[in-house]
Amino acid sequence: MQVTINISLKEGVLDPEGRAVETSLQSLGFHEASNVRIGKQITLSIDAEDAARAQQRAARMCESLLTNTVIEDYSIEVIEDE
Fold first, then answer.
1. Residue 81 has what pLDDT?
2. How many domains does the chain have?
């Protein structure tokens, strides 16, 4: 199963990288850009019996290694193989 994990900073956590990108965009004339937040995306394959099990394993990976749950949120999308 293909799994996509999107990781972002929790609301209220400062995002200096996002702020730097926002400042750069505005200095390039993109004044409509605001509230820029930077995150990351991880894609992987999980050998699991069903989507629920793949979701559970991916969540366990996030809690164990892939995210800092104190300052980051994550969402998981599972795409079943055809």
1. 76
2. 1
